[in-house]
Amino acid sequence: MQKTIITALIILSAVAGCTKKEEATTTSTPPAAATATTGGGDIGVGPVSSVTLEAELKADLVKNGHDLFAAKCAACHKVDERYVGPAIKGVTERRKPEWIMNMILNPQEMTQKDPVAQELLGEYMTQMTFQNVTQDEARAILEYFRSIDKK
Ligand code: HEC
Question: Closest residue (by CA) to atom 27 of ligand 1?
Fold first, then answer.
């Protein structure tokens, strides 16, 4: 008789333990999902919320972007190697197009508010500066960056 009670108690406590565990997992789900939503956007902070890219590169934009890069960015960036800032090669694979344009147009706020840009500032220890480029010019530079990564 006593054995039955003990067995029943063991089963009961096992069941209670299970229920507790389930509760714990359900309560921890909402915050995790919320982080995924805000962190999963990855378009950065700035004026660009959406960019439409075509599969085919636009040659005039690539050329214009190349010239702008040489004039305004090459003091700190090289294509193939780390310099004052990161190597440009592969950036279109690492980041979303919107993020890249926001980094070009709004670098100060990006390094303050965007977690990835913050991390880069921590690594490179130099604040990227806004180079007086318009949104169209930033779009051309993005096309040039895409041409680098297509090769
Ligand atoms: C004063 C030096 C400087 C200039 C000028 C500069 N950058 Fe930067 N750039 C940096 C640094 C340093 C970082 C890393 C973030 C930080 O520390 O601010 C960076 C980050 C970036 C990133 C992100 C790279 C990655 O791996 O995610 C892009 C894209 C970029 N710069 C593009 C440009 C473009 C385009 C221009 C010209 C319009 C430019 N930068 C001008 C220094 C510079």
Answer: 91
